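Priority: medium. Attachment 1 of 2:
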């Protein structure tokens, strides 16, 4: 008797990054049961959530979605897209729906379209916090009801259950708001009763497409899950999924490479074994999954002002030898000048930050080479203020004063910073900050989400 199997394609690590046509063709020839693809992340910072702006261009998304819809139509299997519009806000789902239907009209496609929305009302989330239904994750910032209500957008990261709900509704194409990357791949196998350990571990492994292979570019992988294991191979024939490449992916975006939390519980890979069954394919077995109290991770972003930046370079050895005190003296003057010109207080209404790229800018106090002096240094001046005009005005006197800030080793007037642009001030527009690193305790796995189903002929 043959062992029941279910197969999946992850065509690329992020929708809009592209994939090889021949890889998708090969994947389609393997007759998968589902195609799933992630379209979002918080990796690129809070702007995309705060502003409800997609990171990838419409043309890039359109190209990828068109090819996936055509493959789905040929195979007659579900296509699942998660975290639409990068952050998974409601407008991101609508944006993806518009493109999906545009392609369907152009290509004469018909399907049942399901949508699940994950955006949360800040007022209702403030009430949930007050009633004890929102709890902090480790190292989460202190919050209160007002901080929650100040969020421009809040999303709850869905597990597999909302996707299963739409699969049970016989939806052919499913567009999700903010979703756990793994949930996209776990939904169909769990719906069909496959064991949770291999399912969640497989989903974690293939969530980023070919990144779990030896060719870590924008391309896809094919996976099969059975009653006790899963196996993965890249869709490109010149790449391989090795024990090392698969095992190393559990380190990606996880604080613990063995215990990986999902809304419904924890994946435990401590007993997992990785076996190469060919030069290109690796099988994994021994993964376990432990159900726990159901929680939904909340992501929220709030407007924090307007920003102007300037980039400059320093190569003067005298400045580099005392750069910290040189910048500190500068900032004291900036505070006085800011008060004099605008009446604003530095550190309250207006922020001025100076990052030293080439010296501890990336790791800060964690940098093991704190005292090492480079031969040149890049300075990033960042001014944040309540209005763009104020941020730009402040940046103008900051860049001028900084470029001629004196040092005792030089006599007379100096120019210590080389600015590559004229003018050096670059307006960034509105900026946002993450304010939530918390979980919501929902009434049920579906209660925080809203669903729409429509037939497109």
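Attachment 2 of 2:
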């Amino acid at each position: 008797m043959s062992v029941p199997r279910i197969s999946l394609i992850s065509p690329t690590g992020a929708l809009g990054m592209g994939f090889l046509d021949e890889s998708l063709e090969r994947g389609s020839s393997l007759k998968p049961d589902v195609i799933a693809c992630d379209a979002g992340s918080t990796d690129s910072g809070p702007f995309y959530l705060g502003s409800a702006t997609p990171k990838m261009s419409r043309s890039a998304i359109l190209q990828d979605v068109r090819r996936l819809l055509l493959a789905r139509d040929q195979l007659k299997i579900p296509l699942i897209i998660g975290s639409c519009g990068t952050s998974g806000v409601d407008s991101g789902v609508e944006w993806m729906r518009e493109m999906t239907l545009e392609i369907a009209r152009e290509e004469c496609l018909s399907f049942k379209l399901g949508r699940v929305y994950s955006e949360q009302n800040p007022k209702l989330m403030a009430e949930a916090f007050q009633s004890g239904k929102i709890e902090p994750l480790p190292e989460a910032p202190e919050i209160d009801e007002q901080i929650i209500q100040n969020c421009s957008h809040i999303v709850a990261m869905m597990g597999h259950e909302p996707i299963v709900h739409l699969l049970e509704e016989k939806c052919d194409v499913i567009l999700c708001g903010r979703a756990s990357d793994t949930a996209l791949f776990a939904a169909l196998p769990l719906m069909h009763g496959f064991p949770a350990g291999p399912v969640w571990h497989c989903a974690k492994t293939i969530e980023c497409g070919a990144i779990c292979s030896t060719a870590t570019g924008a391309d896809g992988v094919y996976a099969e899950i059975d009653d006790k294991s899963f196996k993965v191979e890249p869709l490109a024939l010149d790449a391989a999924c090795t024990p090392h490449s698969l095992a190393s992916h559990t380190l990606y975006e996880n604080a613990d490479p063995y215990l990986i939390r999902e809304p419904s519980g924890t994946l435990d890979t401590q007993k997992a074994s990785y076996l190469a069954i060919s030069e290109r394919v690796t099988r994994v077995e021994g993964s376990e999954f432990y159900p726990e109290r159901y929680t939904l991770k909340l992501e929220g972003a709030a407007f924090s002002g307007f920003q102007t930046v300037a980039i400059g370079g320093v190569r003067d050895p005298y400045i580099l030898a005392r750069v910290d005190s040189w910048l500190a003296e500068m900032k004291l003057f900036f505070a006085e000048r800011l008060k004099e010109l605008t009446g604003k207080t530095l550190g309250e209404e207006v922020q001025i930050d100076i990052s030293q790229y080439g010296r501890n800018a990336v790791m800060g106090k964690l940098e093991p080479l704190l005292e090492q002096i480079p031969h040149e240094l890049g300075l990033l001046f960042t001014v944040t203020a309540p209005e763009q005009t104020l941020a730009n005005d402040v940046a103008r006197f900051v860049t001028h004063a900084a470029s001629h800030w004196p040092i005792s080793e030089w006599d007379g007037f100096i120019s210590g910073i080389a600015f590559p642009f004229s003018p050096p001030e670059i307006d960034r527009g509105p900026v946002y900050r993450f304010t939530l690193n918390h979980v919501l305790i929902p009434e049920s796995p579906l209660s925080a989400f809203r669903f729409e189903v429509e037939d497109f002929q």
